[in-house]
Write a structure and sequence with these properties.
alpha/beta; 8 strands; two-stranded antiparallel sheet; 2 domains; 33% helix; six-stranded mixed β-sheet
Length: 307
């Protein structure tokens, strides 16, 4: 119907040769976790972002569904031709570029600091003043254009009530590329949550991090903390918090900064004499590549042209 999106009927027809939507898509509340058009239908940008996240988290699922959807053939070398195994991640605090083009960011902060609004803004959703506490983990995935025009995919994940379990799980931390510490700059008690969080989970220091002061469109207030945010980050030789608001068009610059920092993780570490122990060299990611994107795009175009 040339509306630039796949509606429910078109998605049902597309997934007819398969067992249905992957279970991980259901868990992430697809399609609300990715880019949709004004009618609420997933766009090509959202389609590619969703599959990039699936390939990053569950490469076997991508291979399985590429076969279901007709990608596998002798001429194309089978579904495995669509994926590329990237090198094991080296020490994150050493200068260098991460080879992958899909990155996972945990968004941490006190309740009401604006994490959910940040995830919505990442998908270009309108801002809502209604506050709903996040219970289950929530994910948003979208493409980000880096400096120089290179594109990557960024997964923002808000952990909800599973935050303690996830932050205590070393495998979950190994999968994370960067942390985004958020606080409400208009709430005097918001930043203290970050301080306590880092004390409770010292293993977070092994991850690159960006500090973000949300709700910068409101009146800034002094934080009830031993150190004010700028002094706290300065004491760790970290960059001062970025002051942003989801109501500003410039919020997109934060997403670019997060993606750039994930690509070059050493830039988002405190400068210390003793470097933290690296446990991530055992983690091997199967990153979504141009090949996988091309395969998924072909399936999209085939569905759109037939509808």
């Amino acid at each position: 119907d040339n509306d630039g999106g796949l509606n429910d009927a078109e998605l049902t027809a597309l997934f007819a040769p398969t067992p249905g939507l992957p279970s991980s898509w259901v868990d992430s509340a697809f399609p609300s976790c990715t880019v949709r058009n004004e009618a609420g239908h997933i766009t090509l940008q959202g389609w590619l972002a969703q599959w990039s996240m699936t390939t990053f988290e569950e490469p076997k699922t991508t291979l399985e569904y590429l076969a279901y959807l007709g990608f596998e053939s002798q001429e194309r070398g089978g579904t495995t031709a669509a994926l590329k195994v990237t090198k094991a991640r080296k020490r994150r605090n050493r200068p260098g570029r991460v080879e992958r083009n899909v990155f996972l960011c945990y968004v941490l902060g006190a309740g009401g600091s604006g994490k959910s609004s940040l995830l919505s803004a990442f998908l270009n959703r309108p801002f809502s003043t209604t506050y709903h506490p996040t219970i289950k983990p929530r994910t948003s995935v979208n493409s980000v254009e880096l400096q120089g025009g290179k594109q990557c995919y960024l997964i923002l994940e808000e952990l909800g009530e599973l935050e303690p379990a996830i932050l205590e799980n070393q495998a979950k931390l190994d999968a994370c590329d960067i942390l985004c510490y958020t606080y409400d700059s208009s709430d005097p008690d918001s930043f203290a949550h970050i301080v306590e969080l880092r004390k409770k989970y010292p293993q977070l220091d092994a991850l690159p991090a960006i500090y973000t002061a949300l709700k910068a469109d409101q009146d800034k207030t002094m934080q009830r903390s031993e150190l004010q945010p700028d002094d706290y980050t300065n004491a760790s030789n970290m960059a001062a918090p970025l002051h942003v608001s989801v109501t500003w068009a410039s919020i997109s610059e934060l997403f670019v900064h997060l993606a750039e920092s994930a690509t070059y993780p050493s830039t988002a570490f405190p400068k210390k004499n003793e470097q933290p122990v690296d446990r991530t060299n055992l983690y091997i990611a199967l990153g979504a590549t141009v090949c996988a994107a091309a395969a998924i795009a072909i399936i999209w175009k085939k569905t759109v042209s037939n509808s």
